[in-house]
UniProtKB/TrEMBL annotation:
Regions crossing the membrane: 28-47, 53-73, 80-102, 178-204, 238-260, 266-291, 303-322, 334-367
Record-linked InterPro entries: AI-2E-like, GAF, GAF-like_dom_sf
Ranges for domain GAF: 630-778
Protein name as catalogued: AI-2E family transporter
Annotated localization: Membrane
Chain residue ranges for the region called Disordered: 1-21, 777-797
Record key words, sorted: Membrane, Transmembrane, Transmembrane helix
Family label: Belongs to the autoinducer-2 exporter (AI-2E) (TC 2.A.86) family.
Native source species: Pseudogemmobacter faecipullorum
SUPFAM superfamilies linked: GAF domain-like (SSF55781)
Membrane topology: Multi-pass membrane protein
Amino acid sequence: MPQPSLPGSLTEGPGVAGGESRADPGQLLRLAAGLVIAAVLISGLYLGQGVLIPLAIAFLISFALGPLVTLLGRIGLPRLLSVCIVMVIVGAFIAGLALLVASQVRTLSAELPTYQSTIRGKISEITENMRGPGFLDGALDTFGVVQDEVSHAAPGSEGPGVQRVEMVPAPRSPFETAIAWLVPALEPIATAGIVLVFVFLVLLDRGDLRDRLIRLMGGNLHRSTDALEEAGRRISKYLLMQVVVNVTYAIPMALGLWFIGVPGWILWGALAALMRFIPYLGPLLSAFFPLSLAFAVDPGWDMLIWTGALILLLELISNNIVEPLLYGTSTGLSAISLIAAATFWTALWGPIGLILSTPLTVCLLVLGRNLPQLQFFEVLLGSTPVLDVPTRIYQRLIADDAEEAIEIVDQVIAEGDVIAFYDGYGIDVLRHVSDDYLANARVGHRLRVANGMDMLLDDLRAGYRPETAVETPPRIACIGGKWEIDSVACEMLVHALELRGLAAIQRREAVVTARHVDKMALEGIEVVCLSYFSREPEKPIRAFCRRLRQRWPGIRIVVALWNAPGALIDSNRIHDLGADEVVTSVEEALHRLRRMLTPEEALQDQIAPAPENDAERVEALQESEVLQGGSREELDALAKRASQVFDVKFAVISAIDAETEFIIGQSMDLPGRRTTDGTDMITMPRDEAICDHVVGSGELLVVNDTRRDPRFADHPAIQLWNTRFYAGAPLADGQGRVFGALCLLDTDPRKLGDEELTLLAAMAADVVSLITGDEAVEPGPVRSDPASLTVGQTVPD
């Protein structure tokens, strides 16, 4: 049982009490079964490498050649002919490269005898330099004497008169000698032939193989299809980028060796391009040969030094500039998982396993992302953080590492601002604290979190002060409802209000008695904000509001419910409890409080500023003739498709000229004022436009719940259409002119994931293509403010 404590301390909290759970025998059994299955699979991979290695190489090559076969098929060639053409092209390329390398090797082999004198001279020079007395000579001489004495005294050493007998094997026949030479030489040729056959069959029957893999992965067609598409996309991109990286390394290397004067510069460039397909060891092997030849050719040391400098410079540029720029997150693997995978597959399959380690591990990562049973692969191998930012901060506080928690906070704020951190991450940290108060946290953990949060907030207040000091007396008081985390949220809110230019004070969490309320000293305060993390705050809210009303009748009360159920927030019950408004986030609280104190200024904030190129944008929109009803049927069809794809109540396509917003496409008939010129389009003034913020910022805008955003809660169109969710993607052409937005609207709150945002931006590009008649422009990443209440979210690359 948790220890009782005084109200307002961190030794008790709003969570639900719970006990420690014992080990589940079923879970231990599943773990043992998983380990046995893993051992069987690894044994099968090792024992079956003779068949699995050619098959893996064939699939890897087919990933690289598949897009070319698909391209030939799109121009009308049969599948068999497309595969044959690709195989002939690849074979011709390999044969040409082999002939080039063979000619270079022949030339070098003819010139090598002329370098013998140079090699002997350098070796003699090095030997002479090493013959001088060194500081280890005495130790080496002593070691040699001891070794001789031990060898002479060892039992079994030959004594006087003992002759050593040597067994001479019988000479082998010419046939046996030929077999001994041919078998090792024919083995790689046979493997290459098997690989080519597999590649041909995989490319020819790709559709059938895909169907069989989908069947093996389970009955969920969506998940299996996504897994195969992601694996193919990642591996194909990885191979393509590796070819580009290797070529961009090999060409400068070959030209540099030619300029330095190293013979066979074409050979060494081609060898560098091929060897770099081998992770980690390939660059070392490709550098060994030109360095050795530079050592043998030049009687001096200049050529060797320049060759080494060239290779070092190219490695630095390739590793630190080219590879990060081109690879990016193409594999999705973490650095440590790449090294671990290389070690594992090398131990299992040798050098071929080292080459195949990255693609094979990518396949495991994709399976982990799409199959719940293999989710641990994503945790072990993926590059994405397995803990979100609030959880990481909370864990650092539990570990009594407030300094690292502050470092994480500083990194987050560097990408946004303090208010965005409070709204997007700080409140979530406190939710973790609230949920774990009695269920998991010990007394020591609670104390660490309390001290860590004090340090963190002190650091933020000291490092981020308002640009101009607030000289007006405080008109807002933030009061913690009951627990200390309620007061910590108040500290965040007070700091955010000061950064927005609103003076505020804080009062610690209160015991709801008339005497305590009398001592709060709220003279001059117009609005009180009560903070609660409790999941059942109705009773304390009613009691607190009643006491406040009795002592200060004219005061207005806003309740911040950070962790309450949605039923309490969405209903009018908050008014029955005695409060005037309810908020659920820091950003919403800032807007609500500002609107209550300065309604004129808050009203101006609802109007989005016009973009700098507004006149040019309006002129281009008029030239498109879309406002005269052009392409109306096609735009309605696109809006209807968007509503069906995203499963929302309805979708509209809007365009804004200098003074008016026009709904140029809609998925269903909607109420509103319409044009009388025959186009029958819904119109509204620009200052009431539903997509004015999208046009003004040029960014994708998502409002998960319009009631929680004061800028949209009272919007005429939002109220007329009974909308709770809004998402708008800008209709921007190649010159950056935003004509309007493709808008998704629903009667219930909801959220959009990254894939849905990407698809929404792509569909908006199709709308622009229809309006302008130009080809669709690939949508780029959109700046985001992930912590704001109205979120402009980033569209992933």
